Give the backbone structure.
Amino acid sequence: MKAPSVARLLLAWYRKGHRDLPWRSTKDPYRIWVSEIMLQQTRAQAVIPYYERFLRRFPNPQALASASEDEVLAAWSGLGYYARARNLRRAAQRICVTGGDFPREYEPIRALPGIGDYTAAAIASIAFGARHAVLDGNVLRVVARVENDSGDIASARTRERFRAVAGEWLDPSDPGEFNQALMELGATVCLAKNPLCLVCPLSERCRARAEGTAHQLPVKLRKVEPVHIQSTLLVVHRGGRVLLRQREREARRMARFWELPAPEQLPGARVVEILGTFRHTITHHRYTFAVAQASVSARCAGFRWFTVRQMREIPLSTTARKALAVAKIIVP
């Protein structure tokens, strides 16, 4: 297969129509960077409102660098994987220390906190036209199927081989648009389950389709079995305020975030009613939370009362947001 054939087919398909996502209408590296970080582990449609609110609050690296960590975490609250937000702020501070301009080359972009090979390639190619191929989960799937390659995508050797293939396909005249087209194909057509092969622009070039192996690819051998956990969160609601606790500064996850207490964290609480349940996933951990309305009669040391308005201004955990929604206390 000749690389220009893949590029030409893919770009022609992309230019006929694709999802209208707000970060696709800019070449501003800061805005592209924010979108790429938010899109890690999160679906595009879920990211859009967070992206727009975040940029209104922090329109440039200077605004982000000068904000407190709590302000940034509050703006990020609900997106999850909060190390992403902390690294964004750290990287913005580094950019400001070195002159305030976003770096234009792949290597200095890659050196910023929280930016890996994929994100650096995406920013460098889309914002600056650098010839770097992206390699995310969607691209791995497309390459595996087009090449009919059953290599283990958890293997560094396989990923480097796939990166080389994507680099051979790359359109040097517009690498940014090509990378977006390749990612779009994986996100909307070359799906993990039930790929839409009949409408794929690369169907005639796809070796897996020809061999009938598309549903078997890509191969990922290092599968971690999910861990199922059941827990309860207490909603103590009094006079329009909700009782919350703050995670310790030294906590391994979500340090300093505010959350609803579990029964063991609030001795003496009396459960009044079970309001419902919700599910929450963190990597391979599958949580099922029961949400209980509770009351307390004594003063709760280490806890604070918050109104809904105040909860909009603090870093509030995703599980707390979900539980409050079950309790019909909505925190936008």
The domain at 227-326 is CATH 3.90.79.10 (Nucleoside Triphosphate Pyrophosphohydrolase). Strands lie at 227-238, 241-246, 258-259, 270-282, 285-295, 303-307. The first strand starts at residue 227 and ends at 238.
